[in-house]
């Protein structure tokens, strides 16, 4: 609603400015106050449920300056997604003031993620003369907990988990003084009035000793410590002690999946890994994620920290508590989620005692409640840019702005790496990473995330978007909800998510490669090329299908995929001689328990197996990660043949290379290069300028960079994920944007495509006999 500006004879005007985005809890109101006062403007500012609303009144010249500086000098943590300015007739304000927040109806304001401790707070933490010296809950308007403490919007202290702590006189003064760094810092606290730390069990806690020093001592002695962090409990051990790390693995029931590390400083990180300036910037960012780095191979890390993983996942301390602990214990520590494998992270003290009691020797507790679970995020660098692999603390719940206004849709995501999303107008709010929905506890967390998101934003879904896979727990939940359901094909959701976050609104070629997703023909897709326009897709090419002997077992055991491809190309005698050979051959010949797949993820497994890089995957995607790592910087343009997605010549060449003792590095590079060349081949035949890459396979930095290096010089524009993960953690965004009445994702197969170049495209027929619709892998599909 815009009013016609009325300019009085005095030349005074009034602007109403509405800012949407992450504008609350970052010191925006005091900044506006200072700016307006300095420019001698009158009016007010308030936090509304729609964002930040400002009214300023004064001479036009000053108002223009205000608008300029509002953009240029805004608080560093603020993310302004939209700014609307309306000129109104003057109201005759006498001064500028900060008004109390209004309680509106549409709660579309973005809650800010949790932010790492700022330099000013860190300095206070280390200053013996400061009243917050060594205080573990120090924060200000530039840093500290946000999403993990907010219960309701607007973000004001009574609406946070800090509401039970009454500010002391000193804190209250800071909070109400506009010039103070803690002006309206909602979690503001000090040792006198704020949360405090203690150790459990009580008989182990020594009253004469600082709890953090006791934790340091316990770590040195090889104990497992449960620490209540920002978004949940973490389990800590000394990362240099092989036996302690092994004990943690046993108790956590986590065989091989790498553990994340926390290191005291960047200097320490450089000792253990090879970092680029961009990676160091990510480590030190306000989000402070776990960054996947190349291990340097030097140092005294226990080898079982990241057993058979190509990376080290490293983060820096991001809360005052972590900073204090790392000061007491300046060595690399394992800092992993406080849970058993596949369970959600524990956030509540009582819950942690019950669930982690059998794992941790010592608990470092505090009394600031955590509003919702939020794991540490995981990122890596690809194409010189940040690529988010797990989106949680530091990123959630920042919305992704989309071009089209969306109806109220709840998108429930996939089954693995689940995250849910709600669509509110032009914004899609993604929940934090929920995890794999295999256990009852995980399904509880999934429901919790949905309820939480809906309550926080007072959101009532009218439609639910889910995956097409009938056996996903998320799909079952959607079907049981009683609301209208739109099922979106898995790979369509992948590429739509990537297109949406890149604001791509025209026709594009979607390359969706991953481990598995339910295909329209009931087989397992995962090596797909789609032409996408107006929310419809046409499957224009895919990997030549092959059989997966043992179904789900083939995901964990890559040698099964290798055996299947060898059988197909050379016959049964090519399968390596072992006890498994007769059984496998029988399965393949009789088509027993051998679903069909076009999965590039499984092709990765097969090549990793043939090259001797990995015979199995102890965690999802391990073989592919190891194959990427096997390249080890080898520069070559050499390439296997994968024309029309037919892997037969490729498999024959891999076998020939293995027989002639070619290095795994060369085999891995030729394989990756072949995949990129196939992308170029299809892109040129499809003759579409925009190429969108999505799916778990594009967590692979070499593949992404190689594809871009081939496609871009030929005039193609390549789009990759930036704000949501390329893996199934980004699926909910794609589901949300596709759940439009006019685009029933996945069901409109034939779009009005007319280009003659495309007429030449043909589907590559399966070369194995077609049978009835094949069962798709349950759950893990
Ligand atoms: Zn601060
Ligand atoms: Zn205080």
- Number of helical segments with 4 or more residues: 23
Q: How many β-strand runs? A: 30
Q: Rg to the nearest angstrom?
A: 28 Å
Mean of residue pLDDT values: 89
Largest sheet, if any? 11 strands, mixed
Note poorly predicted spans: 1-9, 742-781
Helix content: 25-40%
How much strand content do the residues show?
Answer: 15-25%
Q: What characteristic shape results from the CA principal axes?
A: globular
Euclidean distance between termini CA atoms: 48 Å
Q: Which molecules are bound besides the chains?
A: zinc ion
Structural class: alpha/beta
Description:
The chain is an alpha/beta fold. 30% of the residues lie in helices and 21% in strands. The strands form six sheets. Strands 6, 7, 8, 9, 10, 11, 12, 13, 14, 15 and 16 form an eleven-stranded mixed sheet that branches. Helix 18 (622-630) crosses helix 20 (664-686) and helix 20 packs across helix 21 (701-711). The structure holds zinc ion (ZN) (2 copies). Residues 118, 120-121, 139-140, 142-143 line the site of one zinc ion. One zinc ion is lined by residues 167-168, 170-171, 189-190, 192-194.
């Amino acid at each position: 609603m815009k009013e016609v500006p009325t300019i009085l004879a005095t030349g005074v005007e009034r602007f109403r400015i509405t800012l949407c985005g992450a504008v609350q809890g970052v010191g925006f109101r005091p900044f506006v106050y200072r700016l307006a006062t300095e420019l001698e403007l009158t009016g007010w500012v308030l936090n509304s449920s729609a964002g930040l609303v400002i009214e300023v009144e004064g001479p036009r010249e000053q108002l223009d300056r205000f608008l300029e500086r509002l953009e240029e000098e805004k608080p560093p943590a603020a993310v302004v997604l939209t700014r609307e300015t309306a000129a109104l007739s003057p109201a005759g304000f006498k001064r500028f003031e900060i008004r109390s927040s209004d309680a509106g109806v549409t709660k579309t304001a973005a809650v800010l993620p949790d932010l790492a401790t700022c330099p000013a707070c860190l300095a206070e933490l280390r200053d013996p003369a400061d009243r917050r010296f060594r205080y573990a809950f120090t924060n200000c308007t530039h840093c500290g907990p946000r999403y993990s403490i907010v219960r309701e919007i607007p973000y004001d202290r009574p609406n946070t988990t800090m509401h039970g702590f009454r500010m002391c006189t000193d804190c209250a003064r800071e909070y109400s003084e506009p010039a103070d760094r803690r002006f309206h810092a909602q979690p503001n606290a000090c040792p006198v009035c704020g949360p405090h730390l203690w150790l459990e069990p009580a008989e182990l806690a020594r009253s004469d000793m600082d709890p953090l020093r006791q934790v340091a001592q316990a770590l040195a002695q090889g104990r497992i410590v449960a620490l209540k962090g920002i978004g949940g409990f973490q389990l800590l051990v000394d990362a240099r002690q092989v036996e302690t790390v092994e004990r943690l693995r046993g108790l956590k029931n986590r065989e091989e999946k790498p553990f994340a590390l926390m290191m005291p400083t960047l200097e320490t990180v450089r000792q253990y890994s090879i970092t680029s300036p961009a990676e160091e910037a990510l480590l030190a960012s306000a989000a402070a994620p776990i960054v996947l780095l190349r291990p340097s191979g030097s140092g005294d890390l226990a080898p079982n920290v990241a057993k058979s993983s190509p990376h080290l996942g490293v983060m820096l301390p991001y809360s005052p508590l972590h900073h204090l602990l790392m000061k007491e214990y300046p060595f690399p520590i394992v800092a992993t989620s406080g849970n058993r494998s596949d369970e959600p992270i524990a956030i509540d003290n009582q819950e942690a005692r019950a669930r982690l009691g059998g794992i941790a020797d010592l608990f470092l507790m505090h009394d600031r409640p955590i509003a919702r679970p939020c794991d540490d995020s995981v990122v890596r660098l690809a194409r010189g840019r940040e690529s988010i692999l797990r989106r949680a603390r530091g990123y959630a719940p920042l919305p992704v702005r989309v071009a089209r206004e969306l109806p109220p849709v709840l998108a429930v995501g996939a089954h693995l790496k689940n995250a849910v999303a709600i669509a509110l107008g032009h914004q899609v709010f993604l929940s934090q990473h929920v995890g794999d929905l295999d256990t009852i506890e995980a399904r509880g967390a999934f429901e919790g995330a949905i309820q939480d998101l809906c309550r926080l934003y007072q959101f009532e879904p009218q439609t639910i978007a889910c995956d097409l896979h009938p056996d996903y727990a998320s799909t079952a939940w959607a079907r049981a909800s009683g609301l209208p359901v739109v099922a979106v094909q898995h790979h369509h959701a992948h590429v739509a998510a990537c297109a949406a976050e890149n604001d791509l609104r025209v026709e594009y070629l979607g390359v969706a490669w991953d481990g598995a997703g339910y295909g329209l023909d009931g087989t397992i897709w995962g090596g797909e090329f789609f032409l996408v326009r107006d929310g419809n897709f046409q499957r224009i090419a895919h990997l030549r299908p092959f059989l997966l002997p043992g179904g789900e077992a083939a995901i964990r055991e890559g040698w099964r995929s290798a055996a299947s491809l060898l059988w197909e190309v050379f016959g049964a005698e090519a399968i390596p001689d072992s006890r498994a050979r007769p059984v496998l051959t029988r399965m393949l010949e009789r088509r027993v328990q051998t679903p069909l797949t076009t999965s590039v993820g499984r092709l990765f497994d097969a090549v990793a197996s043939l090259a001797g890089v990995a015979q199995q995957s102890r965690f999802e995607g391990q073989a592919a990660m190891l194959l990427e790592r096997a390249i080890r910087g080898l520069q070559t343009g050499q390439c296997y043949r994968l024309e029309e997605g037919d892997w037969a010549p490729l498999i024959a060449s891999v076998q020939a290379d293995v027989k002639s003792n070619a290095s795994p590095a060369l085999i891995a590079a030729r394989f990756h290069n072949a995949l990129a060349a196939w992308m170029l081949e299809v892109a040129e035949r499809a003759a579409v300028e925009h190429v969108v890459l999505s799916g778990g396979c594009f967590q692979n930095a070499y593949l992404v960079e190689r594809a871009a290096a081939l496609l871009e010089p030929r005039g193609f524009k390549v789009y990759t994920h930036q704000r949501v993960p390329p893996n199934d953690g980004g699926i909910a965004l794609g589901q949300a944007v596709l759940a439009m009445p006019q685009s029933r994702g996945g069901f409109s197969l034939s779009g009005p495509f007319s280009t003659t170049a495309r007429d030449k495209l043909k589907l590559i027929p399966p070369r194995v006999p077609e049978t009835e619709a094949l069962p798709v892998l349950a759950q893990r599909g």
